[in-house]
């Protein structure tokens, strides 16, 4: 009875939030999923109608409801143009939590979110065990990106082209890091994210190079783990809370001025969702999460606002043209747009060119890419076309998930354009 009462209360709370929706359809003009198949159920307005009938749909066909709610990238495009300011992302996250609380998570997701990801030792062991056998499972695509594919696993991951796991993850290269501040200097807690630790290690090392060059002391929590966004997107609040508790404990082990991350998704999760979910744990954790959120900065913002990185007056005559893709979690969630471009212009060896629809979603969406790959690739193809039309030889971005998507679609089209993180291009200019 208590569970039913709790469910009823959550449904009523969702109804109150949805009531603000005017059904104006502004979300149609910006929704990447709607622009792909033009189905009303794939746009925010249509999904809000489904959520408005959540109780009925849960009883009638909960699996179909879960599938419809899952066909959303959570890119916030709709929320950014909503005239009455409906908190669409908050509604969608809560609706998924209600639906999967009713349906139950799959055993695999439960294992990943509640056993593997909250345990840094176990997660790192799984990755260490998998890295050496990649050569037997993957086939090189011989593209400019250095990606691989896995024909024998097409049934599981499709024919996507991905970067292989790093031969040595970041935490193995650096070990325990907790440096003292230099006199009058600053100290950062570095959060590379899962992909930055285990796949794009060169990106994370570029961040370390920047810190070292600018005499920034570094603290890397030894057992920091996933920021929790995969669990949140899958409606698993329990998994998110387990991961959050571990991270809060780890980040409380040292003193620092800023938390810096090169992952747009991690940045927005720490700043926006950690304080929200910490309220379910306790007062101490809530305050700690708020303190960490206040200190958290995207690496580009940190370099421009704290380190004083500035654009050069003019690029060299032989400068390589580079364009920029705005990650959804930076441009819409955090309003970060100028700083990454400033960082790109700080290296005179590169000439910045803007592409069309630079702030439109690339189609990755984390688990969306895994569960709806063909859908994701169609959206990514539009982004690829804009990259190519810009004439750039490099496309930079500030999110590893976007990097994965861009590498895939460019590789699939046999394009020679390279994908880089902004910090990598800036780090090249440092001695």
Description:
This protein has 431 residues and is an alpha/beta fold. Helices cover 53% and strands 9% of the residues. Strand 1 and strand 2 form a beta hairpin. It is globular and about 65 Å long.
How far is the N terminus from the C terminus?
66 Å
Unreliable residue stretches: none
Largest sheet: 5 strands, mixed
Mean pLDDT: 89
Number of beta strands:
11
User: In percent terms, what proportion of residues is strand?
Assistant: 5-15%
Rounded to an integer, what's the Rg over CA atoms?
21 Å
* Outline type: globular
The number of helical segments is 25
Helicity range? 40-55%
Placed side by side, the strands forming the largest sheet appear as 3-5-4-6-7
Q: Which structural class do you get from the secondary structure elements? A: alpha/beta
Quickly list its features.
globular; 431 residues; single chain
Summarize the topology.
Blueprint lengths: L1 H17 L15 H4 L6 H9 L1 H7 L1 H9 L6 H5 L6 H16 L3 H10 L3 H11 L3 H4 L1 E2 L7 E2 L4 H4 L12 H5 L2 E2 L8 E4 L2 H6 L2 H13 L3 E4 L8 H5 L3 H15 L6 E4 L2 H15 L4 H13 E3 H8 L13 E5 L3 H4 L6 H7 L5 E3 L14 H5 L1 H18 L3 E4 L2 H13 L5 E4 H6 L4
Parallel strand pairs: 4-5, 4-6, 6-7, 8-9, 8-10, 10-11
Antiparallel strand pairs: 1-2, 3-5
Helix pairs in contact: 1-7, 3-7, 4-5, 5-7, 8-16, 17-18, 19-21, 23-24
Outline of the structure:
By secondary structure, this protein is of the alpha/beta class. It is built from 25 helices and eleven strands. The strands form three sheets. Strands 3-5-4-6-7 form a five-stranded mixed β-sheet, with helices on both faces. A four-stranded parallel β-sheet has the order 9-8-10-11, with helices on both faces.
